[in-house]
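Q: Start with the shorter request: fold the first protein.
A: Done. Sequence, then structure:
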Amino acid sequence: MNEQSTQAAGSAKEQFDLGVKYFYGKGVEKNLAEAVRWWKTAAEQGQAEAQYNLGVCYGTGDGVEKDPAEAVRWYKKGAEQGFAMAQYNLGICYAKGDGVEKNAADAVRWYKKAAEQGDAQAQFNLGRRYANGDGVEKNPAEAFRWYRKAAEQGYAEAQYEIGLRYAYGNDVGKDPAEAFRWYQKAAEPGYAKAQYEIGKMYYFGRGIAQNYISAAKWTIKAAEQGHAEAQFILGRLYADGNGVQKSDELAITWYKKAAEQGCKEAQHYLKFTYPNGCTEAQDWLTKAKAALAEKELKRGYFLAEYDLYTAS
């Protein structure tokens, strides 16, 4: 045994730490298989962090042959010792049926254990389960409570969900200003859905002073991340010259990006932006008509004042 190996043999924690060094190449040459070996040595002595890390390696195939069932076995050992990250990952395995039979109730059970220890991802997932009644009885109040806990820890998806509820008065009193506050928390680090909602609020002046320039700023951020509705709205902003310099070329570019993702409103608007008789425009119009026939067009889209086929 070399000096490091002798030291590592002293305790499970030291063995775990040596595994970390090998995994990340800290002070030793990076060697994933060697990391797994040391984590397994520590895990077999009951070291919960090592059990979790070993589970991750079996789940991803890093340093060892991928084995979802073995990942679950090690997650469960760590989870039963109260290690929150192992509890959360075990919940994910039950939710997806990865390495274990799919079981929504067991997913909820393990999410809740992790959530009660403050794991923000688990709190968010638990909130979603209560919101949808998946593996647990539907309970909007509980959903809001767990979303709020995750949101207060800076979890962007949860902040967005809280914003939605205040914006539309779902499960809580309608409060546009509070909606804007939570959307902004999620939007600033880059959450596209929240950026889109802020763009809408600035455009309409809901909960904040109307400001087309700010509307364009946030809509652009969401559109550049591939948010289809934001891409459509950005097309409208360029077509109308609201908050940005008017540009038919850029309007077409953003309509096309949205249309290619299936945005029916963008498919429709391309009919009127492209020259008459353009084959591609006719194709988009056909798709929009088909969507309308199937009642797929949704109400309430930002700037959605459509008289769809008057020019067809």
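Q: Next, the second protein, separately.
A: Sequence, then structure:
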Amino acid sequence: MAMLEMRLRIGARIRYPDVVVCAGPLDQTTRTLTDATAIFEVPSDDTATTDRVDKMIDYTAVPSLRAYVLLEQTAVAATLFQREPGGAWIAGAQTGGALILPGVDLTIPLADPYHGLTFPA
């Protein structure tokens, strides 16, 4: 199965998340989403500010979004931003265990996205 690039429309702006999760089935021809429930980005040196600031501002404007996850490139670590039921966002850092996204009903062992990778000590 081919991997297809999905884009997310936020008002007039288009973003291309590294990974996007949405509720419900998708038509095979769908390439633009408006209803993401979780987004994963892997910041690099070149994209860190965009991923941590600019995209965070854009993504929090998506009413359906419940989780925004930044997966680090140089270590098994993640920052998880979650929308609380009242609409406020909370952040937490993880270096082990599982990423639990309750608003999305998704649990991912943090080590899974890093399977097969090694990092310098």
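Q: Describe the second briefly.
A: Residues 47 and 81 are 18 Å apart (CA to CA). The mean pLDDT is 91.
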